[in-house]
Amino acid sequence: MRGRDLTLDRRSGQFSAVGPGWFTTVRVDDGEFASRVGPTPATPAPTNAANNRDKLIFRRIDFQNAIQGNLDTREGEFVHFVRTIYGPVLSWDQKLDPDRRGGLGPQGIVMTCNHLKIVDMGGGQRRAFEMTAMGNTIVEGMQFLAKADRLTYVESKD
């Protein structure tokens, strides 16, 4: 994560940072990415979830004004021109780059919006997140383009 004037209160879990800045994670795939985004001819769907467990998912969120949230409740809000990059990668240090031709790969997604709230629901065997993007939301992939004023995604409900 990078931002200016990062503040963290460990007792309450509250954090905030002034932008511009970014937040990046690489996580092991839960075996469901291909079914949510859809397989492509270049990346066939695995025959079972065990074959997909070693795949990694890259996420980078860039923001202009601020980020605020709570570590204990695992939620964060990104404010003013937010760009999210999301998709599979082959190694822990690989990054997706939507500004480079072919830099997202066949399943990469770029979303821009004015305000983004993400809550990591955690718990149980499977991690799940909820996301709400508000204001001038545009989601782009290799084979689709979607525009909305408000977009909500609940991973546990696909």
Q: Level of helix content?
A: under 10%
Structure annotation, total helices: 2
User: Can you give the mean pLDDT?
Assistant: 81
Order of helices and strands: EEHHEEEEEE
Write out key terms for the chains shown.
158 residues
Question: Would you write up a description of this structure?
Answer:
The chain is 6% helix and 53% strand. It has two helices and eight strands; from the N terminus they run E-E-H-H-E-E-E-E-E-E. Strand 1 and strand 2 form a beta hairpin. The chain is globular and about 45 Å long. The chain starts with a strand and ends with a strand. About 9% of the residues have low confidence.
Short description:
This protein has helices at about 35, 50; strands spanning about 1-10, 15-30, 55-65, 65-70, 75-90, 110-120, 130-140, 145-155. By secondary structure, the chain is mostly beta strands.
